[in-house]
Specification:
The structure is a homodimer. Chain A is of the alpha/beta class. Helices cover 43% and strands 16% of the residues of chain A. Chain A contains 15 helices and 17 strands. The first copy, chain A, has a nine-stranded parallel β-sheet with strand order 4-15-14-13-12-11-7-6-5. In chain A, strands 1-2-3 form a three-stranded antiparallel β-sheet. In chain A, helix 11 runs antiparallel to helix 15 and helix 14 runs antiparallel to helix 15. The termini of chain A are far apart. Chains A and B meet through helix 4, helix 13 and helix 14 of A and helix 4, helix 13 and helix 14 of B.
Chain lengths: 391, 391
């Protein structure tokens, strides 16, 4: 597989394994370390694309499972692909649908071929395999495609974890084969009823192996042998404790190919992300900033703030005094609290915009600090601010 | 009462009674005819203040009843008034709370003094009178204050309508007295626990009289005798048929003082507004563009469009081809439909922003046409476009 994205490392930290750089895609450049807001159903919940641009999002994530079920990948493909459908010109990464099939659906039938499952929307029966997942992602035209993997449940025995990572490896090979076929043989895309709207899609492999470090290594070796444009760590943030998670990340992160982007899937809190950047991770996604916003939990440089708290009823300060986002430059805690307490849509909009801005600003601070050699100073001072916790 | 707002008529139409002009307030100029988006709880539902500015809203409406109950007029007053609380620097009109007390609450006890009622939020008991309504509106600091009136229910006998309008007239006098007192005697405001955050609030009287034209005339004469900065027609759009409504507007509209703004409360459809402008009305408010948006009904220059309709599933056109709003310049019907069908917040945001833009653009077209002498041409062509109906 030819390189479909170019990763360049532009700086690194001496005291840690943190690095900064960027990824070139058909839809523009992604500065790393990068946080990808999650746009499950073709929308980062509550935000307009203009707001995401203004907040500095350089890439968003779309969910294959959700978009396949609604509105369907074929309508999106006929409309020119996901970028055009949602009117977003910057890069998009799509996941493979695997994680959602295993976490959102019931009555699954697993086989070597793939997974039969029932839609969480209407109960209808569907089948997802490496080939269909790649077909869907090609129809969507994302810039970064993820291989179809089995997200090993937690906890899993060593034996089950081994079987699972071996299946994931075979599926990764089939995923890569399918993407190559779609790109090189027009009749295959035609037979699948799709147009190749983005001919330079990159493909990332996904490392599994639960919390068994030797299995993680084995999985990584298998993926590197197949060869991908980037490598992701999957199967974490699924119920294991933090120590177990960081044991895996600190072991496998630095072993991932240094000339390719490293993506830690589904992580995490601001603290988790900072620690993972210190371990050499480049990309992150998490629903936490968006989901927590809709529940009234706001991130600030002095810890989390629960906007429901009555102490904010007459607080004319911005959500975060040190934040320069569009929300903090204009609106007060008292107003955001009132909107939240009144069940107003604008409460979700402003809370989400602030939280996403907080995450993106934090990534920007790390990207600045790493080449200046001040990453550890940033890390210590930012983490101690977060630990203050104002609730 | 000294003039607190300056109304100037800058143009009029020969063939109809349509007129254009503007109103100067402490928070800026309102071009008329004007539509006021309804910001019930201190937010025009689903829109940021930036979006309202971008769409060209020159004034919004706030609801005294809702803001009094939540978060309370005193907290808002302590935070500097409604403008500062919601971060909106342009004019605000507040209603008196009368309409909501009569339409949203149960277990009301009416007396000459005022109305005792139970909150629709928590059932707690409250009392609203001309004096307390004006106190609340002064605490909010709106630019245009409405007298506390009894919105005569429909249908009402001639006798009940007469009694109701006489009560409204006495309440109008008390409303004016209270506002004068608050402005001129600091100890009165102090005793009410409020600061006068906007010392140049204007006060509008409200015409009642149900569908009895002679009662409407009598009500108007009483109000003019008291003297207000502007005059509103109340008690319409409450269940009577269109003919009855326009009989009142066409009779009373042109009889309202020509040197003051004329405001038709709670109206209406685009068609209603155009017809009322032709009868000399200057100001409108209605929840229709915002509420219908959240139900998937979108206004276009070719009639209403129901975005739920499956025919839009793969429609790459903007909601309204002839619309240049922020939504139509970027997003497609297919995307807005997908957001609506998926229950996404962004569906409400984009639909509301389009509908509000549609209303505001329509007002702008009338303001352009009136001084050019092309109002009737605009009216005929716009109404025939609306009548096409695409559903």
């Amino acid at each position: 597989m030819a390189d479909n994205i170019l990763f360049e490392k532009t700086g690194s930290d001496d005291a840690t394994q943190a690095r900064c750089g960027g990824i070139t895609t058909a839809h523009g450049y992604i500065d790393t370390p990068a946080f990808m807001p999650v746009g499950t159903q073709g929308t980062v919940k509550a935000l307009t694309q203009e707001m995401l641009e203004g907040a500095g999002a350089s890439i968003i994530l779309g969910n294959t499972y959700h978009l396949y079920l609604r509105p369907g990948h074929l309508p999106i493909n006929r409309l020119g692909g996901l970028h055009r459908f949602i009117s977003w010109d910057r890069p998009i990464l799509t996941d493979s649908g695997g994680f959602q099939v295993f976490s959102l659906t019931s009555l699954r039938k697993m086989s070597e071929a793939g997974v039969e499952f029932h839609s969480h929307i209407d109960g209808s029966t569907h089948f997802l395999s490496p080939e269909t997942s790649i077909d869907i992602q090609t129809a969507l035209g994302s810039d970064i495609v993820m291989v179809f993997d089995e997200c090993t449940p937690f906890p899993a025995s060593r034996d089950d974890s081994l079987k699972s990572l071996e299946l994931t490896e075979r599926w990764a090979r089939r995923s890569k084969q399918r993407l190559c076929d779609l790109k090189s043989e027009p009749e295959i895309a035609q037979a699948a009823g799709i147009s190749v709207v983005n001919p330079v899609q990159a493909l990332f492999g996904i490392n599994q192996g639960s919390t068994y470090l030797d299995l993680r290594e084995r999985s990584l070796a298998g993926l590197v042998d197949i060869g991908f444009d980037g490598y992701a760590i999957g199967g974490l943030s699924v119920g294991e404790d933090k120590n177990a998670m960081f044991e895996v990340v600190s072991h496998i992160g630095p072993r991932m190919p240094g000339d390719r982007p490293r993506y830690l899937m589904g992580v995490g809190t601001p603290e988790d992300i900072i620690e993972a950047v210190a371990l050499g991770i480049d990309m992150f996604d998490c629903v936490m900033p968006t989901r927590n916003a809709r529940n009234g939990q706001l991130f600030t440089r002095r810890g989390k703030l629960n906007i429901k708290n009555s102490r904010y009823k007459e607080d004319s300060q911005p959500i975060d005094e040190d934040c320069r986002c569009a929300v903090c430059s204009r609106y007060s805690r008292a107003y955001v609290r009132h909107l939240y307490m009144s069940g107003e849509i604008l409460g979700s909009v402003l809370s989400t915009l602030h939280n996403i801005s907080f995450y993106l600003d934090m990534m920007g601070m790390m990207r600045q600090a790493i080449p200046l050699g001040t990453f550890n100073e940033f890390r210590n001072s930012f983490l101690s601010g977060l630990a203050r916790g104002q609730d």
